[in-house]
Amino acid sequence: MNIYTADPHFGHANILRLCDRPFADLDAMHSHYIETFREAVGPDDDLWILGDLAYGRSAARLSAITAIFDALPGRKHLVAGNHDGPRIRGLSWTSVHELVEIRDGDQLLVLCHYPLLSWNRAQHGALHLFGHVHGDHRGYRGAVNVGLDVWDHRPVRLNEIRVRSESLAPNPVYG
Q1: Any idea what DSSP says for residue 122?
Q2: Which of 44, 73, 102, 113 is most buried per CB count within 10 Å?
Q3: Structural domain total, the chain
Q4: Is residue 155 part of a domain?
Q5: Owning domain of residue 71
Q6: Coiled coil: which residue ranges (predicted)?
């Protein structure tokens, strides 16, 4: 099974204030995300993180981020974001991409950290999943933000994404 998320920003103290995240401190945020991911993702599942796993470049921060990464369940895939530098990309991911097309059952998905206005097979039912946009922007029909900030701070499955997609405003290009 595939599970999707974006923008955990592990190690990024200012994200608590910038995104009004409901945690007392980084330790509380880290603990919540690790626990929530473990509840949603089994050892044989694929966890797709659509960018911004972590923030910070110091050796001490990287050591802490590596410990968090190792605590996350499943086969971990990164669709790199603007904060995922060489050290983050160098963790023991199953795969690392800038943009990738995958199938989840019969559904074609185009995964990118950034929201796209148009993507391959959009007019034929392909869904685009993205992150990067914080706040309350959920996307539009066919293009769904899977960021933690718009999913009650938890990763999501395709069935939930499809329901949300249908509830969103029409795509400005394809309707």
Answers
A1: G
A2: 113
A3: 1
A4: yes
A5: 2-167
A6: none
| 15 located within any domain | yes
From the CA atom positions of the chain, what is the Rg in Å?
A: 15
User: H/E element holding 99?
Assistant: strand 99-104
CA dist 154 and 4 (Å) reads 9
Can you give the pLDDT at residue 59? Answer: 65
Q: Does residue 175 form part of some domain?
A: no
Please state whether beta strands 127-130 and 139-140 pair in parallel, antiparallel, or not at all (unpaired): unpaired
CATH number at residue 60: 3.60.21.10
**What's the token pair of residue 111?**
């995964």
Indicate the DSSP class of residue 1: -
Name the pTM for this structure: 0.96
Q: What are phi and psi of 9, to 5 degrees?
A: 55, 45
Sheet holding 46-49, edge to edge: 2-5, 46-49, 75-79, 95-97
User: Which of 143, 80, 141, 151 is closest to 116 using CA atoms?
Assistant: 143
Given a contact cutoff of 8 angstroms between Cβ atoms, the answer to whether 5 and 155 are in contact is yes
Contact 155, 37 (CB under 8 A): yes
Contact 23, 39 (CB under 8 A): no
Query: What phi and psi values does residue 63 have, to the nearest 5 degrees?
Result: -60, -45
